[in-house]
Specification:
By secondary structure, the chain is an alpha+beta fold. It has 7 helices and 33 strands. The strands form 8 sheets. Strands 2, 3, 4, 5, 6, 10, 12, 13, 14, 15 and 19 form an 11-stranded antiparallel beta sheet that branches. Strands 1, 9, 11, 16, 17, 18 and 20 form a 7-stranded antiparallel beta sheet that branches. Strands 26-25-22-33 form a 4-stranded antiparallel beta sheet, with no helix packed on it. It binds alpha-L-arabinofuranose. The site of alpha-L-arabinofuranose has 13 residues, from loops.
Length: 519
Amino acid sequence: MMTQRPTRRRLRRAALAGAFAGALLTGVLVAGAGTSQAATSQPCDIYAAGGTPCVAAHSTTRALYGTYSGPLYQVRRASDNTTRDIAPVSAGSYADAATQDSFCAGTSCLITIIYDQTGRNNRLTQAPPGGFNGPAAGGYDNLANATAAPVTVGGHKVYGVFVAPGTGYRNNATNGIARGDQPEGMYAIFDGTHYNGGCCFDYGNAETNSRDNGNGTMEAIYFGSNKVWGYGAGNGPWIMADLENGLFSGVNQRYNAGDPSISHRFLTAIVKGEPNHWAIRGGNAQSGALGTFYDGARPNVAGYNPMKKEGAIILGIGGDNSVGAAGTFYEGVMTSGYPSDATENAVQANIVAAGYGTSGSTGGPAVGSNVSLRATTACCTTRYISHSGATVSTQVVSASSSATDKSNASFTVRAGLANSACVSFEARNAAGSYLRHQNYQLFLHANDGSALFASDATFCPQTGRNGQGNSFASANFPDRFIRHYNNNVYIASNGGSNAWDATGLWADDVSWVPAPAWA
Ligand code: AHR
């Protein structure tokens, strides 16, 4: 632990602690009373009261100031490429997801902008190429599917930012973000069950040219199970600090026992840094207090003291635009100044009071149920997803079908192999074999236990794009949904280079009614 330094700043923090308690109490009581979370004191109000104001505040789920009523994020729909801003339902409240649902009905939407609520215009948009190219046109990263991460806040449906590998947001021309060795803090709420070992699911401070500019040119929250540079106790995932050319779990370059594996469904993750001092903190965003996993001196490795922060902001990627990581982001802020633990504890209490949840968020078939997935396109309402060996297609199935045909069209819904908030479909008559995509086509394959198989076999249910049943977004290609096309089954985007990406009938073809299983 860092030795305590009895400075004037510490005394000021202690004096301010009482002030937060009052400000926080107001927010918690209001939220707790069920008044749609229009708390008078939201995270950025609490940081301001602590003398460390937000200089960037991003969320697709809720306002981060009690008085904020501007746009939270922007979506763009595939049908006509028009955009729509999504704001809180009222000042200080949760996001108006109903507006997104109606704007995106019958088509698909991407998140194009995550606005900055601080008034500094530190918004996040599609990340440009850097040290590495993204998969989209011009080397840009992909944008997130706007409906791939449905959750609830205070019981109200909202959407997070689902980052499949290849997805990334960035701002290389910011205002007020820490540079050099200046102090800063940040927190983010992630889905602690959605991660991988790719580089690097980050939120925070990075290089302004999207390149690796050397040790100490970043300071961002990392979340995932990457062990290339550093790791903590257990098998991960871990909250670490991405300081460039290194994910740090403590003072040592690689292993630090104090940083635990942590995977709460909603995870509060914190990294903060000031001259020769930094910390990692985290906890369950649905209950309880924060733990401190490291608090001490800068790493004992050359190049990280003093820091050389550049002040760009990244989400979902590494500083050099490495795009191998996966994760889900709900909200996060960056501050000017090094927040006190007391301030962060008050923010955590606010987050818990906000009431993140998942109940009813997917509307998908229940895990453990047996289903047959019926097509809803007018041509094909008697057809079901079926397999014959490894081949997957749609087949007409009725009460008079053979036992084999009924069995081939029947699946058990399992918790998603790669993301328990989503689902996987295991064949009723082939235990251990799942629907998975390969080269964008669906097959029935035995689970080989690999991370790739798990991702390929995981689909995230949402309301059917034509209003019927469910549509199932691929976990690792979330802009692609299970679609039938010429009676074959694919994962298809709404407009794309493959024949099965055709926009005609897309919304119908990707909508399935999960009926009781034929077998
Ligand atoms: O520090 C880990 C990663 O290393 C950074 O995110 C990236 O810029 C570099 O590849």
